[in-house]
Amino acid sequence: MSRSDELPVPQPTPGTRAFGLPGTLAQRWNAFAVAACGAVVLVMGYRHRWTNDDALIYTRAVRQILAGNGPVFNVQERAESSTGTLWQWLLAAGGALPGVSDPLRLAVALGLLLTVAGYLLALDGTRRMLRIHRPAGALLPAGVLVLLPLCATWDYATSGLETGLSFAYLGGAWWLLVRARTLRAAHEAPAGRGRPALAPTAFALGLGPLVRPDLALVSGVFLAALWLLWRPPLRTTLGWAGAAAALPCAYEIFRAGYYGVLVPLPALAKEASGTQWQFGWDYLRNTLDPYLLWIPLTLLAGYIGYRAYGVYRAYRAHRASAVAGAPAAPETSAALGTSATGGAPATPDASAAFGTSATADASATPDTSAGLGTSATAGTPATPDTSAGIDTSATAGTPDTPETSAALGTSATTGTPATSTTSAEPDAPAPPGASAEPGGAVTTGTPAEPGSAVTTGTSAAPGTTEAPGTSATFDTAVTPGSPAAPGTVTPGTAAPVGSAIGGGSAVGASLPHGVPVRRWVRWWGGTRDGRAVSRPYTADAVLVGAPVAAGLLSAFFVVKIGGDFMHGRMVLPALFLLLLPIFLLPLGRAATVLAGALAAWAVVCGLLLRPPLESPDDPRIVFDSHTVYQRVLGDTHPVGQSAHTERRLAFSDAARHTLRTGRHALVLRLPHDAGYPVVPLAPHVRAPVAAAEARLGHAGAVLPLDGFVIDTLGLSNPLGAHTEPTSRRKAGHEKPLDRAWVVADVTAPGTRVPGVDPDRVRAARHALTCGPLPELLASAREPLTPGRFWSNLTGAWDRTRFRIPADPVEAERRLC
User: CB 3.0–4.6 Å: which of 493, 611, 635, 800 could bond 262 by disulfide?
Assistant: First the structure.
């Protein structure tokens, strides 16, 4: 299907009303709507500002970077504890600025600003998308109203985590993709500009894995959409691929050589490659059910179905009229396959477009033009300034050479009035002496004058040749040196190219510079003036489908891995993506009703609907983390590091006491807070104090940067991250480390610890010397020499896949 098969889109003229509002007022309304949505995110995010323990994990790594120790959690070993690589380095860059003393407060401010920026970019991207076909008119907030009243949206606008950066990336990626689509439309115009440099766009889209590893799915989908929108040649494709992969691949090489594994340790600790469908479905429902999100999502789905059905009906009607033709009333323009009936005079300036057929005795008044594929009939006088469109047939009395075929969609007869052209099915047999192009008209034995032009793309009957000196021009037959017969175009006369819908090219039409546009092109388009041409509907489908596909993949991934323990956090990006194309809708009756219903739900949701504090009835715990931290810390807005370190806990008291006394000792938190014994460290441990604690961020804030924090959940501990999961009660807490491993790793042989089985300690000590375990620890603890970097790099794949039985006795049996 060529560009001539587009449906007409009414274009408002300057000064007229479009969708109910004058142009200037509509623009002001749209700016207000976008700004108001951003203001809601800003205000509610600020009112819900807070941080959690995981944010302290980021800030300890940031403080290590600023102290010159590198991107590590402990100076004693190279372990990547930050899930969001780009977020970690962004905080480090901000922390280096003068006057920034607390990276946690910086994380709150930066996260809020990035969240607002993400929403503004997303809204503006949707606005620009709608402007591709509707240059004017008011827009209504729609899909964005689903996200604005959610407590989860307000909570994770800050929190100190990478969620704000995730929203900024998603909104920015959408904006860039829409920009690529608009540039594509400008490039395809007959006088279009050259191919723009989109390598920076590919570079930005490729940053997803560095924002969060799971956003690699989004990067892949958006990069594929960018390619489908432009379909560049191989050289450009390779350039885009190189730009997109440059930074992620470079950092992946650094990660493998520096840390010895291919992913951050939290990805190993949470077993992101695992499958836990039931837990994931429960987590999804924990996000959807409290807010009654099924209501707005159902309303939006109904609206989309209604609009899709309307487009489908219009498309079918257009296709049917393009093939059969429908009678058009006098004094109207015959559009998209309609025909002017016999005897009905066409009024001045009326145009017959796309396959219109003027039947016998129809007289054309001055300035009347027969559009593309029009056939002028016998005895029809053409007045001055009358031009027949491309693919017009020669009338009676115009002799042609024997057995010359007519152009696509034309009808040539001899001595009889021409009727509507007969469509031939593709590959249908033609009568003797006739030829049929796919979808064109069958012509039989029409003679042409010697020296006349044979139309481009038509096939002559057997034995027919072009006369010397003839040329293919505009698919019409012209007799040199004679006045143009009705239905012909004289040399040098501009034939109407395009249509009433604004520039679509018809079957067999020519573009400037005489380049023909073929009817049958591949589904993604053809070429024009050496430039690729895509069908607008295909390009729009790619543009709209990209965030929807990415959102579905993100939701699928979250459900597959079992969700998270923080309410709503992992579902928000998927919802954001799914709703991007309908963040705004053009003002109309159906859109107004929909927006009103969504606004009513949003008010109820924002005022009354809240998530449960905990989900005790589910097999896996999901918390309203914001409320939990407010209550535990006794602070409405815990945004500084002191809000966490001043919390009086038995662990922090024991750690501070050990530091004050100067003991080279380990503070060990026993399971279920059964006690905090303090035991001597082994001489080889290069740290003034060590602490084994499940609250990793809190422990990292309490201990100095040269202290050794041992994570008992594996988020920053290479040994714990590689153990096999033993608990499914809480996402991200599935690998509780047996304390025997800790004692065996950092204490001297023979050290006895209350509450820890000495036999299990002995088994753990033995297992640490067997199989791949020594190499695993060496990859993180040996000095980083060129040889160590190369060994880490080449062994990263096997090291990432390696797992240890959580039970020391079983590990000893299996490894030794």
Answer: 800
